[in-house]
Amino acid sequence: MAETILVVDDDLDILELLKMNLEPEGYNVRTASDGDSAVQSACMDPPDLILLDVMMPHKNGFQVIEELKNIEETKSVPVILVTARGQTEDKVRGLDTGADDYITKPFDLREVTARVEAVLGRTRPIKYINPLMRAMGEGFSEKGLEQLAGHLQAAAAIQKKLLPEQAPSLDGFDIATLLQSSTSVSGDFYDFIPLSETQIGIVLGDVKGNGIPAALLMVMIRTALRLLCHEEDTPALILKRINDLVARDTEADLFATMIYGILDTETSTFTYSNGGHCYPLHWNTTRNIDVLKTGGMLIGAFEEATFTTGTCLLAPGDILVFYTDGITETEAGDDPGSDGNRGVSENSEQSDVYPDAIPTDTFYGGDRLAVCLSKNAALSASALCEAVVNDLASFSGSTQTPDDRALIVIKRDV
Amino acid sequence: MNFDTTIGEENISTLHIEGKILGNATETFRKEMETQLQTGHDKLVVDLTNVPLIDSSALGAIVTTLKSCQESGGKLVLLNPQKAVQEVLEVTHLATVIEIYDTEESARDAFM
Lengths: 414, 112
Prior knowledge:
The complex is a heterodimer.
Chain A lengths: L3 E5 L3 H11 L5 E5 L2 H10 L4 E5 L7 H9 L9 E6 L3 H10 L3 E5 L3 H28 L5 H21 L10 E8 L7 E7 L4 E9 L3 H18 L6 H15 L6 E9 L4 E7 L5 E4 L3 E4 L3 E2 L13 E4 L5 E5 L1 H4 L36 H11 L5 H16 L8 E8 L2
Parallel strand pairs in A: 1-2, 1-3, 3-4, 4-5, 10-13
Antiparallel strand pairs in A: 6-16, 7-8, 8-9, 9-10, 10-14, 11-12, 11-15, 15-16
Chain B lengths: L1 E6 L5 E6 L5 H15 L4 E8 L5 H16 L3 E5 L3 H9 L7 E3 L2 H6 L3
Parallel strand pairs in B: 2-3, 3-4, 4-5
Antiparallel strand pairs in B: 1-2
Helix pairs in contact in B: 1-2
């Protein structure tokens, strides 16, 4: 998810300039033109960082920091002060008041971006731990926080190791994967589990929620799946057992969406069950797109959930695409690519290949993914992954990844 | 995201929300529903007419609140979700366990 920066300056030109500079870097930018509205905006919806001008009428930057540090919601939001050149006293005073860094005016825009990124890089790991800090209450200490940050990094390293380093090679099929993480601990995951000479289990999922609890849930699901896929026959039964396990053992707001299926290279079938996950796309050589909807509820929120199993047959040249919502919920940039990628709806021939798609121009949506797939169907699986990434970049006007993205492309050899 | 909660007949709370429920706004949304529950309002209408998109944490907040309402004998219903939100509710199959209404009247009637 994109990080939000609140920019505060009484000079509207500077506000606009900073906004124009930071948004293409993938940040959400909010602005305030005086101290009072800055404090109000920060309290209503605490940003990830505040870029704060010192010299403002009525209430100056120092007074704003002081207020923010006394408010529960905003006291841990990092602040970069913007001071006039040569005002060393300001810098010292600013850092004393609790600013995290400062920038001198007139500034170099590249320096602003670098400092913003540096401060966010330092504070990002701490933010994950905020829920734990609240849980610890008064028992919280700086040292405890450092330990937790250490544990988090260890968790991230373990999680990375759990993901297959490369897609499996299977006779008659070309498989490629992509995983982009916005943070150190990703909610998206995938796995390939060899079941027999001719069968492989494939899972793609998205654990909802944030930080350590979500990472632990992902590890739990992955482990359960690895054990269960040899015990149960059908994907629906496997999802049901994982659902019951998670629903019993975790809070209702911690859940996952996932698709699990078995690719059989002998029969060229994919037998699957979809637990509330974005519908995978099946492109076939007659240029039709089917969506794989069969399944049931998202995983882990309701013990009474039930699932069904579906099958699809893969003809030579057919393509299956699995993805997470980080792809379809990619937001449009202000300046879309000039090759008209946003103009999908104007293309009458292909506009309804994916009728359930998000139809707005705001989000990338399944429709654009389907079109991108159709256009590039002749490519190899890994080139198709790349084509999707490029299409997303031209749609959003940015190569930054504000959300986690995962993609699996499976293509049957012609 | 902005919101405005009104309490009407039969102690039904309606949360009118405006804007995307994403990121930090999700926490505000969650807290507001919690506040309603804590003050004894377990009949909730969440008006999504002006919500273009919600994130997964917001879905989680809805699921948790739905369950709490049911436990105390109340109910949570959704009002008029827009296409992108409706799609998320359908893909996740939450549309099969949450009552969804098109109009404020029919949402309120759901509690009678």
